[in-house]
């Protein structure tokens, strides 16, 4: 099976990367210098969240390392497990990528491939590199070893500093269609077709979120509660109470994603340190556990922010549906299951008021990114929502 088989909705990008892998394979086999225009030593894969940036990056990595444009099963499995000796990965579960982590991957990029045709360096969430951290990467992108390829992933080119953008070949992914994502869920995860379509539609073609909605009843319930709460706001009191509940929902969602992983990591750490379950941790070893706990706290902070952002995306879809109804369009409704509530909201407000609600969502996201307390940002946003309940003259 090809490494490209399970990728969804990106035929143009897949063809480009497959052609590049073909050129790279021929070049590696002949020992020629890197002159083929189909191939580059550094790539930037951009696209909206959920478009499959990292999936394509790792498929391309497997094709390059194996020397086969379609990859091979052994290499693909090792790349998927992030265990191939010729693959280096830098990702973060915190708010930003640390400069020391970039220095480490830059040092390792100088190694020659050990068993594969190429050594591939993947940086997920490259947009989370501060400028100082990005500058550490520049030298490696300017003068990489002949058999080293860099693959960076970010939402857009604008998320990286200009000097990085000038040294990479950029490939923009499109948003997959709902049908493409639903088909992937059916084929890969054996999700029933009606549920797959609903999850893909509610996730707005975000592949990762669609899978989560399709496989977690709790995630679907939390999303439903969020939208119903937004439709039910009539007073400032309603807004304040709803803000507290939305923050709780985001926290529950974050815990559902991280709690099991945190416990597993702690258990593995204790095992590697030779500490029996339930036993007191020796003072000399507590520093190592403290470092793990600090990493987990940073991951929890990011997970909470991601959970809040998912709520904001869902609310945007809600008011987008309201606005479409106000403009006489119902053919592309995202939240079909809330038709009655959408109709009521559309009749009780004007398009200008609905646009003000969408602006309030954008303002809440900006404030949270600026480290405003999430609860205060959510309260201000939800208070703005109640304006759509004023009488329409």
From TrEMBL:
Molecular function as annotated in GO? DNA-directed DNA polymerase activity
Q: List, alphabetically, the Pfam families matched.
A: DNA_pol3_delta2 (PF13177)
Question: Under which EC number(s) is this enzyme classified?
Answer: 2.7.7.7
Tree of life domain: Bacteria
Gene3D superfamilies with a match to the protein in the record = P-loop containing nucleotide triphosphate hydrolases
Q: Which GO terms describe its biological process?
A: DNA-templated DNA replication
EC top class, as a word: transferase
| Keywords recorded for this protein, A-Z | Nucleotidyltransferase, Transferase
Q: Which NCBIfam families match?
A: PRK07940.1 (NF005926)
Descriptive protein name: DNA polymerase III subunit delta
**Which organism was this protein described from?**
Orlajensenia flava
């Amino acid at each position: 099976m090809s490494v490209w088989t399970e990728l969804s909705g990106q035929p143009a990008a897949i063809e480009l990367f497959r052609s590049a892998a073909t050129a790279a394979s021929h070049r590696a086999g002949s020992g020629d210098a890197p002159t083929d225009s189909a191939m580059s030593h550094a790539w930037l894969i951009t696209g909206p969240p959920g478009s499959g940036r990292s999936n394509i990056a790792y498929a391309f990595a497997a094709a390059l390392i194996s020397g086969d444009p379609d990859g091979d099963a052994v290499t693909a499995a090792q790349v998927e497990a992030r265990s191939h000796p010729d693959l280096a990965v830098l990702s973060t579960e915190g708010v930003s990528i640390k400069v020391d982590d970039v220095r480490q991957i830059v040092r390792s990029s100088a190694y020659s491939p050990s068993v594969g045709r190429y050594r591939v360096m993947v940086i997920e969430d490259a947009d989370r590199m501060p400028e100082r951290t990005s500058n550490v990467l520049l030298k490696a992108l300017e003068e990489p070893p002949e058999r080293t390829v860099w693959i960076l992933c970010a939402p857009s080119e604008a998320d990286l500093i200009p000097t990085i953008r000038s040294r990479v070949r950029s490939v923009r992914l499109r948003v997959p269609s709902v049908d493409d994502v639903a088909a992937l869920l059916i084929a890969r995860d054996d999700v029933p077709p009606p549920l797959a379509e609903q999850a893909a539609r509610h996730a707005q073609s975000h592949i990762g979120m669609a899978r989560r909605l399709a496989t977690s009843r709790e995630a679907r319930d939390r999303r439903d509660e969020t939208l119903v709460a937004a439709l039910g706001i009539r007073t400032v009191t309603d807004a304040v109470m709803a803000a507290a509940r939305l923050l709780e929902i985001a926290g529950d969602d974050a815990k559902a994603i991280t709690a099991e992983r945190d416990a597993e990591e702690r258990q593995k750490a204790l095992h590697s340190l030779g500490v029996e379950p339930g036993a007191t941790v020796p003072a000399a070893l507590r520093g190592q556990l403290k470092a793990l706990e600090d990493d987990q706290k940073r991951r929890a902070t990011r997970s909470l922010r991601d959970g809040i952002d998912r709520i904001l995306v869902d609310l945007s879809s809600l008011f987008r549906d309201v606005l479409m109804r106000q403009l006489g369009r119902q053919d592309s409704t995202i939240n079909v299951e809330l038709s009655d509530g959408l109709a009521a909201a559309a009749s009780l407000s004007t398009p200008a008021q609905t646009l003000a609600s969408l602006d309030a969502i954008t303002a809440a996201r900006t404030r949270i990114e600026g480290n405003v307390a999430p609860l205060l940002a959510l309260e201000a946003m939800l208070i703005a929502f109640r304006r759509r309940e004023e009488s329409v003259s």
